[in-house]
Amino acid sequence: QQLNLFQKSMDYRIFATDIALSSLKLGEAGIFTPESIQLLTLKQVKSYFDQLGDNYQISPRLKQHIAFSYYDLMDQSSHYPPDSIYGDFDIVFCSNLLFYYQPDIQSNITRKIAKSLADKGFLVTDEAEKAIFRNTLNVIPIEPQLCIFQNNR
Hints:
The protein is an alpha+beta fold. It is built from five helices and eleven strands, in the order βββαβαββαββαβαββ. Strands 8-9-11-10 form a four-stranded mixed β-sheet. Strands 4-6-5 form a three-stranded antiparallel β-sheet. It starts with a strand and ends with a strand. The mean pLDDT is 86.
């Protein structure tokens, strides 16, 4: 399938990972309360969700592109989720994760994420992780005010 983004069509696959099996099950169910999607536009809700009683469920059209899998970022034997086969991600999102860990573990995780990016791939973080990734060797900020980096290998 293709996603129409800024009038360009592209093939895509989303790898949604977590270490908590309960979180993966919630993600796979894809059911959201009105409060949990309140920041989305009405157009986004209509495009990517179906009404399910009082809640909303991710549309099958979108869900078919998402692979939910267990993945431990601290596993030293892998650099990317096994379902992705080779890594080389065009874009990785990392939000509200690293501040839970000590600096040495943060460093291991940031190196792993940077290594999993494709050449010139993008990393999107939140404000809390922006400073941590700013010091990672392989990624450079695209714009100082944004939380978007690009792989520099």
